[in-house]
Every structure is written in C-alpha cells, then in structure tokens.
Amino acid sequence: xxxxxxxxxxxxxxxxxxxxxxxxxxxxxxFSYEIKSKSYSKSSSEVALTGSAxxxxxxxxxxxxxxxxxxxxxxxxxxxxxxxATPRIALDALNVSxxxxxxxxxxxxxxxxxxxxxxxxxxxxxxxxxxxTDGKFENRGEPTSALLFGSNLYVRPKPNxxxxxxxxxxxxxxxxFADDDAVxxxxxxxxxxxxxxxxxxxxxNGEDAIAAQVxxxxxxxxxxxxxxxxxxxxGQVVQRSY
Length: 242
Fold this sequence. Notes:
Layout: E1 17-18, E2 25-28, E3 31-35, E4 38-42, E5 45-48, E6 59-66, E7 72-76, H1 87-92, E8 102-111, E9 128-134, E10 145-149, E11 152-156, E12 166-167, H2 189-204, H3 208-234, E13 240-241
Antiparallel strand pairs: 1-2, 2-5, 3-4, 6-7, 6-8, 8-9, 10-11, 12-13
Helix pairs in contact: 2-3
C-alpha cells in the first residue's frame, strides 16, 4: 500500500471531507501514516479550521499535518485575512511538509455572499465553495504528460491549478453493431473482419503457412482504413478539450 503513495507521508488515504458531526469542521477517515520510517495510525476525527475570516469572494487555504502522537495541526495560509484571488495563489502560501510530521492534505474555501469565518461558518453553507485534497500540494505542478484510457484522463504530475488540455487527434471508439445483420459504416471493414477472423482461426489451428498469406491480405485492408482515418483527423484542428 505504501508504494502507492511513495511521494506522500501517509500509507492509506486520510480522505479529507466536510465534518459529519460538525459541518464547520474538516473530517478525516481512519488512516495510517509514516514519520521517519515508523508507521502510525489515527482513528477518524473532526478538526476545526483556524485563523482569520476570509473576505467575500476571495479564497483561503489550510494545510493539515499530524504528529507521532496523533495531534493534528491545522495551519492557515499566511495571508488568509486579506484573501487570495484564486485557489492556486492561496495554496502557494501554505507551509510545506517537514520530516517531523506527516502532511495529510489541504483545504480551500471561498464564500460569494460574505466573509467566511473559520469554525463559525458551516462548510456546507449556501454560497460556500470548498475543496478537500489529500497529499502534499508541493507534489503538484503543471501537467507534462497525459493518458486517455477509455473515458478516464490521467495526467502527471497531478495538476496544481485548472488547465485546459487539447488533443489534435483522438480516434473515437467505433459504435457497436445493433445486431448481427448490421452493416459497417465503411464497407472496407467487411474484408478486414473476415480476413482477421480467418487469421485468428488459422493461427489457433497451427496453419502457419496459410496464416502468413492471410496476414498479408489483412494488413493491406487494415492499412487502407487507417489511411482514411488519418486523412479525416488531419482535417481537424482540435477534436476534444478537457
């Protein structure tokens, strides 16, 4: 489990969230953490945010750290009393991690219709926007690589702000056939399906010599479809944005 969070100081997720017994506080789940190569555990509890009120429409941020004895320290960003224009600017003002405690995560809050007062204003109150993130903010940055797998987008490093990602060419997944009598939109798929099916059965039955001949034909059909797809993609500037 610890290798999953090798860049963090916890072994299992603290799962920061709005308090359930007291919605003015931040709740964490049962979790384990590491300090100086020794592991510790902490039962779920709720802790209060600290410091000055955040002015209307501006952002404040807090970090949460835990010591070896289970004491959780909540530290406000250095200028919460003035407020920050964006969550990113507020988070840049947080204390970084240290070797004497384990960094649990951080919280950002803003209130659009008035000041947000820590441990007084409910975190689920109307017009309050808040986020809860496990892990060290210093581990985050501008994403330099991305992987789109199915409907999920993965980026590294984890983002430290809101970014727009644009992809010049992403092939859409083909629409499934409605039934056995359905016809492909591109009739070239017919020979491809037939030749690839034949190749599969020939290889399974050990007919390597014939399979090699069929493979040449199958590759030819596949290449013709891919060429059409490439031409269509090159005619587009941006297909998807995130």
